[in-house]
Amino acid sequence: MAVVDYQAPQSIEDAIGILQKTDIKSKVMAGGTDLIIQTKSQTADPVRVVDLKHIDGMMSYTLDDGGMSLGPAMSCAEFTTLDDVKAVYPGLSESAYLIGSTQVQGRASIGGNLCNASPAADTIPALIANGAQCVIEGNNGERVVAVEDFVTGVAQNCMASDELLKRISMPRPAPGTSDAYLRFIPRTEMDIAVAGAGVSVTLDSSGKCTAARVAIGAVAVTALLVREAAEALIGTAVDEQALDAAAAAASAAAKPITDRRGTAEYRTHVVGVLVKRAAKIAAERARGVK
Amino acid sequence: MSEAKKFNFIGQRTIRPDGHDKVTGKANYAADLSLPGMIWGKILRSPHAHAKILKLDTSRAEAMSGVMSVATFDDLPSVSNEAIQSGEGAIDSLDLGRNVLARDKVLYHGHAIAAIAAKTVAIAEKALELIDVEYEVLTPVLDLHAAMKADAPLLHEDMFTQGYPEQPEKPSNIAARHELKMGDVEAGFAEADVIVERDFVTPTVHQGYIEPHACTVSYNTEGQSMVWCSTQGHFDVRASTAKLLAMPLGNLKVIASEIGGGFGGKTTVYLEPIALILSRKSGRPVKMMMDRDEVFRASGPASAARLTVKVGGKKDGTITAMQTSIAYEAGAFKGSPAMIGGMTAFTPYNCPNVYCETFDVVVNKPKVAAYRAPGAPQAEFGAEMAVSELAEKLGIDPVDLRLQNAAKEGTQTVYGPKLKAVGLVECLEAAKNSPHYKTELKEGEGRGIASGFWFNIGGQSSVTINMNPDGTGTIVEGSPDIGGSRASMQMMASEELGIPLNDLKPIIGDTESIPYNQSTGGSRTTFATGMAVIEAAQDVVHQLKERAASLWNVTPDQVEWRDGSAINTAGEGQMTCAEICAKCEKTGGQISGTGNVNARGAGPSFAVHVCDTKVDMETGKVDVIRYTAIQDAGKAIHPSYVEGQFQGGAAQGIGWALNEEYVYNDDGVMENAGFLDYRIPLASDLPMIDTIIVEVPNNFHPYGVRGVGESGIIPPLAAVGYSVGDAIGANVSELPCSPPRVLKLIQEKG
Amino acid sequence: MTKVHVTTSINGDETEFLCEPHDTLLDVLRNDLSLTGTKEGCGSGDCGACSVTLNGRLVCSCLVLGVEAEGAEVGTIEGVGEADNLNVIQEKFLEHAALQCGICTPGLIVSTQALLAENPSPTEEEARYYLAGNLCRCTGYDKIIRAVMDSAETMRGEVK
């Protein structure tokens, strides 16, 4: 694609108005870290870039007793400095910190990561683990879709071409809940996830797991919510046996491909290791949460 | 040289003279020059790894508005099989021409077919899509096994294996076979109590310089044409480009820009001849710059290799025989450093019985280029892994086994000469006594140690030192400075002249301001160009003394040169360099010293590295937790930049050992042609790299210098590889030790 | 295609330029404004050679559109230090021999400045991770990290 027009609307309504134009294709941009590379690497149709960063609310967040409402275009660099968010959703904060380099985090956003819908997106399993919802605005008003249903395929999401992701919202975790996100990459930084795992765990006062959500990334066309892995943890003290069972369930649910970043066999194995380790960290954190 | 020589500047950690420009962004690299009226060139590259070009029609592209010129192989006036100097070896100019722009056949995915110059990059890119090419797609030959099969598809129908007593009847992808031998390996193995025999595999890796190839050129029909480019050898760029374009050397001026890394990979031409054609045909200056994926797909990587190594030793630790069979990928055209692999593999050992057989093999991948000690890391990886395993089987400490069998002065090499004074024993002893080696490993950690040998070269260097009327001077050298060599040149000249460092400004002259210089390669610059600097500085001193003598009316031998001043030993008087220069006009004109050398006696530099790793046993991920690089510098001119060479070589070697590799699909398309998935080490991947500089003087250099640029990349492959094997309790035989491969070893061992 | 008129601030200087909508900030800096201190190593955000600050945030200028600079503040290597005076980071890079070929150096210095503005007392590990997006192929990072840590120490001393 070749960028021939750039628009920076000031409101959602204006943005949707632009998206409805049919003269040329429009591409929505938040941080642009995926989009700008796509415009360089392919030479095809002319496109209009619609930059969301000047729209009120796209770059801000609120966190209260009801949970978090996040402007999807806020940079990961800013998001990861939010200490109040980190205290409540440490795993989600970590997932945003793992995206690319410091420089990439300076631009990349959670909303962009979600809408770009790479199977290996780091924030998506962490969002799913936290039960996050996408608030979508379109010409016919607003609709809300769970993150696990938002992504429909490789680089595909459920939005129509004139719809926008307006907010990402997630409930305040129940008492005794915490999360963790881990990914595996060959180096220590910069790589795209070979596999990823986001886990949220709720423990009661005796340390027994009463609720859990386990999501895995980079092992299927979309991130997967693995109910069997969560069930392996629920009712246990998140001990080694339960962790092994959760890992096995995650590996069983994985349907990865072999590519330059890892073999299917390797990904299947490693995603189990990550679920185990992430669940362990989430449980440790949950034990420390009142 | 005199052992007692006291230095004023040599050995200091001075501030490099080109440093200010580099920390402020003022330094001009290849892509930084723009000229009035300049247009942009882009290249059409093959979408196939192996195909015949049935039709190539550029007429639609030429007709596009904004397109200024087009180039194809047919624009190269004449190319023959003549050899031309390129980097550390010679290259067949027909092969070079066909690599620069394909003729008849494309031989790798990304092979250049045609080029377009247009008013903007966007227009040029769009015009490339209008070039019509018809291909007959052929089966690609993508690895050594496939290429060496008797019925393999042929890259070159007219290529017959060289090196057999008689030319084979059938053409082959094996370009050459060589044998190196001494003693009697069969007898040696018969003597051995323990024999280790293993196969090893190493991947295609890239030099990975951060600056892509780029140039700005301007063709001048009547006078002199100009090429500004990033290269390790602008004289070789001139030779290659002039050859391909049938120009006299004097009609082409090549200016070496600042160079953003080369490591051997910038010793040949890719863009420069094309850009000149485009400039000639358009009458406009042309700028070209490769995208990063073009750098990976179409500029020289280092050979992938397969080798079998066999070493035998006696219970008392004597290595009795060493043998290897080595095959290296050359890429699309002949000329891998396979034979160098054979020459270097066992040179760290004083073993009388050695046999090496080497194969240079073409495959449908980009033509390989030199990469830091080209050919040595792959072969020495296998040799060092086998020697470490032999030590383990004999129950001897791996450093002790190496010490017992270490090559030293007088050791016969398999490639001919006996070694002169070398510092391997000193390096091994330094390793043994290092805090690192003395620290015991913790549970789950592994350690590897390996030696590395590299010849180093000397060769032709020319330097002029032009003195200014105020007593300052310019050192005009012809060796592009990749890693801080101007600092060393400044120090050596100051040492001889006795004047402050900042009074001497080193510059890299273009091809018309200084005689021919060989390229910066083979670790030759500080050694050979340094000798020319010393010679030029001594020439200046000689002239300064003569001028002082004439001013004092004494004979030159009555004048002594001390700390930057002439001393009249026949009477009273002292004159500084500045005072003499100020009076040049009256004493016979300006002062300029020259040094023209064809340096011989480049002393080999041995290196010994120690590496500790820890492996995540559930994922196979390797963490390098401690690393020490020890190497013989002969004499370290600037210790910081000597250490920098050790550390940089170690980091590249660690990358080679852990995560770097070209990943191809079955069609021969590289799938990881970018820094995202071609994984070079990051700041967060590495520990501090401790260094120990060993100084065993090279008696062929006035200060004792040995080149240090290359040996450091050799030991890491086996130091890391063996360390990983030690940590997981399995034998590593294939690089890189990427997590899936290491996990497989862990799982197989059960 | 119509060029877009952009008004921005670069290293504190109000600057205007015209660019195509597809031009990156890196293209504009290098080709239109002759600020060639910002280098291109990959064009895909993987090497950090083009690091600049955008409204104080460290970014790769190859992943920013030129038009996005409208109304923004851009900081490049040319704005580091003063005309006749290197800043501490630049001096420490020279003192520690933290560069060989120097192509990654402008990006690393801009990044180090951003690091130390955010975190004046980084641990070695924090510095290594913050700078992980700045590739250097020459040095093995050892001397770079020493220069960064020494810069931090010196800068902390200055404000004491």
Features:
heterotrimer, A: 290 residues, alpha+beta, Uridine Diphospho-n-acetylenolpyruvylglucosamine Reductase, domain 3, Enolase-like, domain 1, four-stranded antiparallel beta sheet, 12 helices, 35% helix, globular, B: Aldehyde Oxidoreductase, domain 3, seven-stranded mixed beta sheet, five-stranded mixed beta sheet, 21 helices, 30 strands
Distance between the termini of chain B: 59 Å
**Widest sheet, order of strands of chain A:** 4-5-10-6-7
Tell me the overall shape of chain A: globular
**What is the percentage of strand-forming residues of chain A?**
25-35%
- Helix run count of chain B: 21
CATH topology of the largest domain in chain A: Enolase-like, domain 1
Number of H/I helices of chain A:
12
Largest beta-sheet characterization of chain B: 7 strands, mixed
Q: Quick one: overall form of chain B?
A: globular
Task: Explain this structure.
The complex is a heterotrimer of chains A (about 290), B (about 750) and C (about 160). Chain A folds into three domains: about 1-50, Uridine Diphospho-n-acetylenolpyruvylglucosamine Reductase, domain 2; about 65-170, Uridine Diphospho-n-acetylenolpyruvylglucosamine Reductase, domain 3; about 180-285, Enolase-like, domain 1, CATH 3.30.390. Chain A is built from twelve helices and 14 strands. Chain A has helices at about 10-20, 35-40, 75-80, 85-90, 90-100, 100-105, 110-115, 125-130, 145-150, 225-235, 240-255, 265-285, and strands at about 1-5, 25-30, 45-50, 60-65, 65-70, 135-140, 140-145, 150-155, 155, 165-170, 175-185, 195-205, 210-215, 225. Chain B is an alpha+beta fold. Chain B has three domains: about 20-25 and about 460-600, Aldehyde oxidase/xanthine dehydrogenase, molybdopterin binding domain (Aldehyde Oxidoreductase, domain 4), CATH 3.30.365; about 35-140 and about 210-260 and about 265-300, Aldehyde Oxidoreductase, domain 3; about 300-455 and about 605-750, 2-Layer Sandwich (Aldehyde Oxidoreductase, domain 4), CATH 3.30.365.10. In chain B, the strands form eight sheets. Chain B has a seven-stranded mixed beta sheet. Chain B is globular. The model of chain C has no long low-confidence stretch (mean pLDDT about 95). Chain C is built from five helices and five strands. In chain C, helix 2 runs antiparallel to helix 5 (about 140-160). Chain C has about 160 residues and is an alpha+beta fold. Chains in contact: A-B, A-C, B-C. Chains B and C meet through helix 1 and helix 19 of B and helix 2, helix 3, helix 4 and helix 5 of C.
